Amino acid sequence: MKTRYEQIVDVREIASEKGDHIPSILSLAGQEQILPAASDKKRTLLLAIDVQNDFMESIGSLPVAGSRADVQRLTQWMYNNMASLTQVMCSLDCHSLLQIFHADWWVDKQGNQPKPFTVIRHENLIDGTWTVANADTAEQSLAYLKNLEAEGKKELCIWPYHCLEGSSGAQLENQFTNMLYFHSAVRQVKPLLVYKGQDPYTEMYGIIKAEYDDNKFVNHAVLEAIEAYDAIYIAGQASSHCVLASAMQILEYFAEDKAITSRITLLIDCMSPIAGFEEATLQAFDSLREKYGIQIKKSTDVIL
């Protein structure tokens, strides 16, 4: 390519307050002579999970250690494979203040809100350790916690306020955004943006469905998109939570079709776990590889 990686991504500005520079990116992209994505015979998809400011170390409210280097490796991989990467789909966490996993939802017997990372269980509502701040939400909140336990889902964790809709923390990381729109302009394809986590009564780690919801929502549009590609590469944050949940949901849906599950590759050096989940995450990924035939590779080992 005529454009150098450094003209698109300033590695010093990854996970910084500096914004993207889309106009200059589009100008650079106009100099390239790469065929449009529609001409690809082998169709490849990058599924970038939650590459957002609030998950970036040094600036995020819920930072993931290693995320800056992950973005550098991911954008370098996108650059190196520009002519063969057909499409990029990005999931984006998107929340409001009043959601069941935020502190405003709950109070203890003294009227205090829970601190970040507090775990609230069904029994805690029964014994009065925690109660909802708004009585109108009590019945549904109690039912949610009961159903989480009944279905063996993650326990409800109170997360720091993050990815609040319209906030800078909810935006895609700036240097990743530069590479995303450079790819979009060069390959003449619109990025696919998938918002998740807006239901106040549930948590949605994965891109396909919530941990539990009465409506049993499944994002079939995403599943249909994945089915349409010959190879799917997954990266993003955090590997222990939203990346793992997204991969598991996709694989469980296509469990009977190894022709699809075997197309999926985790770019293991373009994601990092939340501290304390390192070993469990690697074990979970190994289990997915054994069960579904996925691949786990470093970005430097994958040439499209």
UniProtKB/TrEMBL annotation:
Keyword Cell membrane carried by entry: no
SUPFAM superfamilies from the UniProt entry: Isochorismatase-like hydrolases
Keyword line: Hydrolase
InterPro entries, A to Z: Isochorismatase-like_sf, Isochorismatase_Nicotinamidase
An MF annotation (GO) of this entry: hydrolase activity
Top-rank lineage group of the source organism: Bacteria
TM region(s), chain numbering: none
Assigned protein family: Belongs to the isochorismatase family.
Protein name, entry field: Nicotinamidase-related amidase
Source organism (scientific name): Sphingobacterium detergens
Lineage of producing organism: Bacteria, Pseudomonadati, Bacteroidota, Sphingobacteriia, Sphingobacteriales
